[in-house]
Design goal:
Layout: E1 14-17, E2 24-27, H1 29-36, E3 49-56, E4 60-66, E5 74-76, E6 79-81, H2 84-96, E7 100-107, H3 117-133, E8 137-142, E9 151-156, E10 161-163, E11 165-168
Parallel strand pairs: 2-4, 7-8
Antiparallel strand pairs: 1-2, 1-11, 3-4, 3-7, 5-6, 8-9, 9-10
Bound molecules: zinc ion (ZN).
Length: 170
């Protein structure tokens, strides 16, 4: 499948596993398509990002929608911060559609993304907020390579930060 921009659109969702955890992670196709539009494929592309939404059941964390970026976000080649008011509005909108706020996403100008020092700071802040909400939050980084190998996803709970092993679904 070829998109308008000549890049292959994703045709498989991405699933994730963590050692010792029975719940798996599903990143649905509409999410991959949405974030894929903001991949930093050109040398001048700035980081983009937003929030992740979906549902959680005993077996799976399902990320079904992604929002953002928004006007008046802070965006540069190596930095992204959602406009806080816009992010809050998105969280409320999806809440009325009974979708949970599951975390944050942003792009990186690297093929296979790794968490930067800024990202580690952001994860520590999410850790503090998940202490208040008593639920784990996700942080997804979208690199330049399409598919599972171009994604990084971390789970942040009040106690630990761990990275999901990802693969494309069959
Ligand atoms: Zn980052």
């Amino acid at each position: 499948m070829i998109s308008l921009f000549g890049k292959a659109a994703p045709i498989r969702s991405v699933v994730g596993h963590l050692d010792d955890i029975h719940q798996s992670l599903l990143i649905a196709l509409p999410v991959l398509r949405h974030v894929g539009r903001y991949r930093q494929s050109t040398p001048w592309a700035t980081e983009a990002g937003g929030q992740l939404f979906g549902i959680i059941n005993a077996r799976q964390v399902c990320v079904t929608e992604a929002s953002g970026p928004y006007a008046s976000d802070e965006r540069s080649r190596h930095r992204y911060r959602s406009n806080p008011a816009a992010a809050q509005r998105a969280i409320e909108d999806y809440h009325t559609r009974r979708l949970l706020y599951l975390g944050e996403w942003h792009t990186h100008a690297e093929d296979h993304p790794s968490a930067s020092n800024l990202d580690n700071d952001a994860m520590r802040r999410l850790m503090a907020s998940s202490q208040l909400n008593s639920s784990a939050l996700l942080m997804m980084i979208v690199g330049r390579v399409p598919g599972a190998s171009g994604l990084g996803v971390w789970s942040i709970s009040s106690e630990v930060i761990c990275q999901w092993s990802l693969r494309e679904s069959e």
